[in-house]
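User: What would this chain look like folded?
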Amino acid sequence: MNKDLVKRFAEKYPEINDLFEKHQKLENKVDELSQKAYLTPEEEIKLKELKREKLYIKEKIYKIIKTNEGIEID
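Assistant: Here's the prediction, encoded as structure tokens.
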């Protein structure tokens, strides 16, 4: 995620700011789980769910930027 770009638009669009904060919290949880030497099957499932949710939020942020600003982000 291009954090600098998202932060710039987060100042302009409160919805992006909220989504970005959620994304950051999820990223911290993913990092925390990923640092473990071994994951239980439940933790592996949780990690996949967190990554999926994180991606969904990222896509939602980019869609808001594209809709409101006309900017395509990879």
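The first helix runs from residue 3 to 12. If you want, I can go into more detail on any region.
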